[in-house]
Amino acid sequence: MRCKCGAETQVTDSRASAFDTIRRRRECTACGGRFTTYESRIAPWVVEKHRASRAAMEKRRWHAKSIEERRQIKKREHTRAAARTEAAISGRPLDTVYEEWGCK
Fold it and tell me: Are 30 and 64 part of one and the same domain?
């Protein structure tokens, strides 16, 4: 994580906090400033099946596979579309999601 001055920070203290969050105390390596961050655990996505059963969603097996077959969309375009959808739903930066999905 970076400080306001743009330099990297080091974690000086880390502990569990309420509501499944992690409280981290950080210190800037350049200016010496200290601040606290709260990081939440991202819950895995769950897919509800036909018979009301639930399963963890596999990112590589996106429900749009049938659309890909009908329209003959290239695999790369399909992966980028799925990554854009995940970024929109989760609120995370698109570049970060692209890196996770291997789109760059």
Answer: no
Q: Which domain holds residue 31?
A: 1-42
- 16 pLDDT tier (thresholds 50, 70, 90): confident
Q: Which residue reads 């950080």 in tokens?
A: 26
52 is a domain residue: no
In the block, which residue shows the tokens 């739903």? 89
Each residue's pLDDT tens digit, 23-60: 999 999 999 999 998 888 777 777 777 787 887 766 66
Task: Give the global pTM.
Answer: 0.40
41-48's contacts with Cβ under 8 Å and 24+ in sequence apart are: 42/90
Rounded to 10 deg, the angle between the 94-101 and 75-90 helix axes is: 130
Would you say residue 47 lies in a domain?
no
